[in-house]
Amino acid sequence: MKVLRKQELETSNIQVGDQIVIELTGFGEFTATAQKITDKGTLFLFDDCVTRRPMNAERSNKGGYEKSELCKWINNVLLPAFPEDLRDQIDNLTIPTYGQMFGHDDWYNDVMEPDDDEPLPLMKKRKNRIADFNDDYEWYWLKNATKKEVSSSYFANVNNFGHAYYYNASNSNGVRPVFWLVE
């Protein structure tokens, strides 16, 4: 009989699919999975959402993700919650893009502000795009705002079934962080 068994081991050779455990002060313990490995480092995506937050208190996507209240919260509240030794190796703690989760398709071209990201290999399977928060499947934010001709108040997200959608910036959705771990 063939079985797959997860095993904890000490290694400096991270591979796509490897998980690390992260204790976030005030939020709890989470796993993050290695999604991509480059000369820059390893891109990790949290397996689940760490909280629910609005992108902006106002119904606006003005300034995109980079000017959003969620971006400020991630930098000022979430990043300091990481263990110090890990925090020192983190580059660009953020949330995923549409391109990382789904690639670029006709709907993306018609509705979303563009990104230059390629789809993450593990996100090709819908089950890997589904995330949990407090034992329930959660919708979560993506970085892409909708184009102005679509709406000035929406951002992309992933719904509880792992499909692409968009939602009003003032609504609370899950926050599923992504970050580069560099040496």
Short synopsis of the structure:
This protein is an alpha+beta fold and about 180 residues long. About 15% of the residues lie in helices and about 35% in strands.
Detailed description of the structure:
The strands form 4 sheets. Strands 1-2-3-12-5 form a 5-stranded antiparallel beta sheet, covered by helices on one side. The chain has a 3-stranded antiparallel beta sheet with strand order 8-9-10. Strands 4-11 form a two-stranded antiparallel ribbon. The longest helix has 13 residues, at 69-81. It has 183 residues and is of the alpha+beta class. The mean pLDDT is 94. The chain has one domain. It is built from 5 helices and 12 strands. Helix content is 17%, strand content 33%.
What distinguishing features does this structure have?
183 residues, alpha+beta, five-stranded antiparallel β-sheet, three-stranded antiparallel β-sheet, 5 helices, 12 strands, globular
Major sheet details: 5 strands, antiparallel
Mean pLDDT: 94
Judged by helices, strands and strand pairing, the structural class is alpha+beta
Helix fraction? Answer: 10-25%
Helix-strand topology string: EEEEHHEHHHEEEEEEE
Percentage of β-strand residues: 25-35%
Radius of gyration: 16 Å
* Cα end-to-end separation: 40 Å
User: What overall geometry do the principal axes of the alpha carbons give?
Assistant: globular
Side by side, the strands of the main sheet go 1-2-3-12-5
